[in-house]
Amino acid sequence: MPSPVSISEARRDLRRQLLQARRAVDDTQRDQLRQSSERLARQHVWLRRASRVAAYLSLPSEAPTDRLLDTLYGLGKQVFLPRVVGRRMYFVPYVPGARMQAHRLGMTQPHGPRLTALQLLDVVILPLVGFDRLGNRMGLGGGFYDRCFSSRLRSSHWPRPRLIGLAFEAQAVDRLPVEPHDVPLDAVITEQGITPFRRSR
Ligand SMILES: Nc1nc2c(c(=O)[nH]1)N(C=O)[C@@H](CNc1ccc(C(=O)N[C@@H](CCC(=O)O)C(=O)O)cc1)CN2
Ligand SMILES: Nc1ncnc2c1ncn2[C@@H]1O[C@H](COP(=O)(O)OP(=O)(O)OP(=O)(O)O)[C@@H](O)[C@H]1O
After folding, report:
1. Which end of the chain is more exposed for a tag (fewer CB within 10 A), N or C?
2. Any bridge partners for residue 101, and if so which?
3. Which ipTM was obtained for this model?
4. Euclidean distance between CA atoms 193 and 174, whole angstroms
């Protein structure tokens, strides 16, 4: 059994490799992911039935959300974006064209009223650094999504929100080393389509 220190070290090494793989993705794959996410926003039952969906404003190397945000908004859904303040993350409404605030690491974040109950969200689209075939995820290492959805680890039944990662196939690995606080995904969307994970079907 590896010690917790070696798990977090293994995650750090893997994070570095996966960030490199993400930066190497070409424009064709980026466009394929834009198309795939738009199609799924229109057709997949979890998104079709959703009224409130949270996503994120993508950084240049991340899985792009521009088309997805436009599509969801155009379909009349209430769309939300994450806002990080200190160690906490919460969600505020997405308003196209609204002024954003510069944040660390080149991220921008919206202002706005905070959504108080996370169960009001039907779907959350998460940015990923990597994911594995069991639905484990890796982010930038801030633990923001893990802390936000940590109560999910203690409940056997959690219908909402569905947690869907958005990533390129190049970000997939067979198995990620996981720590007890890591909150798994219900599905991942890549340029090849959507893959639901077993416990969520
Ligand atoms: N586009 C996008 N938006 C996003 C995320 C994301 O991954 N992508 N997030 C996904 O989480 C949240 C913001 N995540 C952040 C993650 C790290 C740091 C940061 O400043 N990290 C420090 C070290 C952190 C520490 O050690 O505590 C740094 O790298 O200098 C800031 C925001 C919400 N919005
Ligand atoms: N529920 C929690 N309570 C307290 N600390 C937590 C919790 N979840 C994660 N953390 C802390 O956050 C840090 C991030 O760990 P991890 O490598 O899992 O990040 P990540 O999954 O890549 O990040 P993110 O969730 O932002 O995408 C760790 O140092 C961990 O101790």
Report:
1. N
2. 109
3. 0.91
4. 18
Q: Find the mean pLDDT for residues 167-178.
A: 97
Ligand 1 atom with the shortest distance to the CA of 83: 33
pTM for this prediction? 0.94
Overall size of the chain counted in residues: 201
Residue nearest (by alpha carbon) to ligand 2 atom 14: 143
Spell out the residues 6+ positions from residue 113 whose beta carbon is closer than 8 angstroms to its own. Answer: 92, 93
Residue with tokens 């080149």: 106
Q: Which long-range contacts (CB under 8 A, 24 or more apart) does 175-178 make?
A: 175/132, 175/133, 175/134, 175/136, 176/11, 176/14, 176/130, 176/131, 176/132, 176/136, 176/137, 176/138, 177/2, 177/7, 177/10, 177/11, 177/14, 178/7, 178/136
Model confidence pLDDT, tens digit, residues 102-150: 998 889 999 999 999 999 999 999 999 999 999 999 999 999 999 999 9
- Report which bound ligand comes closest to the CA of 108: 1
Q: 113: cis peptide before it, omega within 30°?
A: no
Binding-site residues, ligand 1, Cβ < 6 A: 56-59, 62, 82, 84, 89, 104-105, 107, 127, 139-140, 142, 144-145
Ligand 2 geometric centre to CA of 174 (Å): 21
